[in-house]
Amino acid sequence: MSLYQITVENAHNEKVLLEAYKGKVLLIVNTATQCIFTPQYRALQDLYDRFKDRGFEILDFPCNQFANQAPGTPEEIETFCSTKYFTTFPRFAKLNVNGPDENLLYTYLKQAKGGFMKPAIKWNFTKFLVSREGKVLKRYAPNVKPEKIIADIEKCL
Predict the structure, then answer these.
(1) DSSP secondary structure letter of residue 91
(2) DSSP alpha helices (H): ranges in the chain?
(3) Which CATH class name applies to 3-156?
(4) Which of 55, 74, 100, 132 could be a cystine partner for 11, CB 3.0 to 4.6 Å?
(5) What are residue 17's DSSP bridge partners?
(6) Residues 16 and 10 sit within 8 Å (Cβ to Cβ)
(7) Given the residues 35, 63, 81, 156, the one annotated as active site
(8) DSSP state, 134?
């Protein structure tokens, strides 16, 4: 299976085949609106503004699995992110990143950067960098600030 064969739901509950992002460098992030790392939205938007014209996309997946830090409807989350942090990158439906109900995307990402043991996502704002060819290149812990991965992104572009 390839990353591009996975289907996810956008914030409007419409199915999106990740093949739509083939040929782009991706940063896939599980997010939350009430997390200690929520201010990273600002730095993520800065990355998006800096690199989007060069084939870079950030895919934002809200996750409420960690201390219920992503409450609210998709509309409430979108309003919060767009008015407080002025985000414009694609936001998707809430999903689970661990456990029996984890989304296939996160099963795939964890296996690619963790092997058979597929270490659990520890918290929101875990980031995965994916090449234009769909290869998962790196996994960054939540405390790694987006500005610290600029060189890795530039290498991919």
Answers:
(1) B
(2) 40-51, 74-84, 104-112, 150-156
(3) alpha beta
(4) 74
(5) 7
(6) yes
(7) 35
(8) S
Residue 130, strand partner residues: 26, 136
Structure tokens at 35: 């997390």
pLDDT digits (tens, 9 = 90+) for 22-75: 999 999 999 999 999 999 999 999 999 999 999 999 999 999 999 988 989 899
Q: Hey, what are 152's tokens?
A: 């890795």
Rounded to the nearest 10°, the torsion over CA 33, 37, 42, 45 is -80
Count of CB atoms situated within 10 Å of the CB of 83: 9
Exposure letters 111-132 (e unless 16+ CB within 10 A, then b): ebbeeeebeebebbbbbbbbee
* Residue 9 identity: E
**Which amino acid is it at 17?**
L
Which residue has tokens 């997390």?
35
Query: Which residue matches tokens 């530039």?
Result: 154
Decide if 63 is catalytic: no
